[in-house]
Write a structure and sequence with these properties.
11% strand, alpha/beta, globular, 37% helix
Length: 382
């Protein structure tokens, strides 16, 4: 009788409720050589980003951010339209470009856009192509396959820390026969149960119970004057857990890194821009491993690979070397370079961890980059 009742309920629910498979991403592994860009944003997508902030993130800031990805996969409220009379700038980088932790208008891309528009009295759009975790091979793929055909008037490259982490623990940095891996393990019976609507409803109910008002990860939306539209996909992040996980790792011996790999990739990116007659501006990577701010020190988490953590002095020295190499490349190629790490204050007002900006830090980067572009007359409006 119970079995018949469950089967009947399942059949009825399937007629009226359509729920996605929560484990679809775990059902198969495939080679990434069939995909041009490893990490990219899905076009024409709206999502909500919910995060658990640490003590350095301003309490008055929202922790629920509604994100819009436009028709070409960039974070911008407007679609890309090559027929429009505008000066188009495409920013390419990782999470420090993406800026999901703060409202759209406080991302450095939007700060840059508004500053330049106000100063130059001309329509300018800065399309945000930042993707969390993206490294130089992702940036080159995004440039070649998602950007060049859009006829950009300028491209901005902001990279570094993800490539350093890549060098720390990846023996396949060129992605040859790269298999998409997952760190999430799911029992075979759960994969089977996830085919049923009843189980999907159970998972949704379970998640709602955990997302109660006592959990700091899910502050009430109305307290932040933010709402998540019904049916909008949600991405979650936690500023507090990663430092704890990193601290638990053993201290490893400083590895020998192939710094020239990063230099070759940067040269390739610049060469791709040049051969397509696209002006390019490069920013170096700021990091906070040597910050004197003790509050900031306890929220570091990126000085590791899967097996070990490494000394912060080694990490900072490595990043400094990579930034110096980029400067040499830009000087040789006559490419404008903004060494933003030498200008931004290295403390908890401007960063909340190893390299990610607070809203104040993001605004600082946007304003500083705008001044750099204007002072060097890098935009010529007809």
């Amino acid at each position: 009788m119970i079995l018949v009742t469950l089967i009947g309920a399942e059949l009825v629910l399937r007629l009226f409720i359509k729920l996605p498979d929560p484990y679809q991403h775990l059902r198969s592994q495939k080679y990434s050589t069939g995909s041009v860009i490893r990490l990219q944003n899905t076009r024409n997508t709206d999502l909500a980003f919910v995060f658990n902030p640490n003590e350095l993130f301003p309490k008055e800031e929202k922790n629920i951010i509604n994100i819009h990805i436009n028709n070409q996969g960039f974070r911008h409220h407007e679609d890309v339209d090559t027929s429009r009379n505008e000066f188009s700038i495409f920013a390419i980088g990782g999470s420090t470009t993406q800026g999901y932790d703060y409202a759209y208008e406080k991302t450095w891309c939007q700060v840059l856009e508004k500053d330049l528009e106000a100063s130059l009295k001309s329509p300018i759009n800065v399309y945000n192509g930042g993707t969390a975790g993206a490294a130089m091979f992702d940036h080159i793929a995004l440039l070649q396959n998602r950007t060049i055909h859009l006829q950009p008037d300028m491209v901005i490259l902001f990279a570094g820390v993800n490539d350093l982490n890549l060098l720390l623990g990846d023996d396949n940095i060129y992605r040859f026969d790269d298999v998409f891996e997952t760190q999430e393990s799911i029992s075979w019976y759960k994969l089977g149960l996830a085919r049923f609507t009843l189980y999907k409803l159970f998972l949704n109910a379970k998640r709602r119970v955990h997302a109660n008002e006592d959990s700091p990860l899910f502050r009430k939306a109305d307290e932040n004057d933010t709402t998540i539209p019904e049916g909008t996909p949600v991405q979650f992040a936690d500023h507090k857990a990663p430092p704890i996980e990193t601290e638990a790792l053993p201290l490893g011996k400083n590895p020998v890194l192939d710094y020239d790999y990063y230099s070759r990739m940067v040269r390739s990116f610049i060469a791709t821009c040049k051969v397509n007659n696209i002006p390019v501006v490069v920013m170096t990577q700021p990091t906070t491993w040597k910050s004197s701010d003790e509050r900031l020190q306890k929220y570091h988490w990126m000085h590791k690979n899967r097996e070990n953590k490494f000394s912060k002095e080694f990490m900072q020295n490595s990043m400094d070397l990579m930034n110096n190499n980029v400067q040499q490349i830009c000087e040789n190629q006559k490419v404008p370079l903004l060494r933003i790490e030498k200008l931004i204050p290295n403390n908890g007002e401007y960063f909340y961890d190893d390299c990610h900006f607070t809203p104040k830090g993001s605004v600082f980067v946007g304003n500083t980059l705008a001044e750099f572009i204007k002072e060097n007359n890098l935009i010529k409006i007809d």
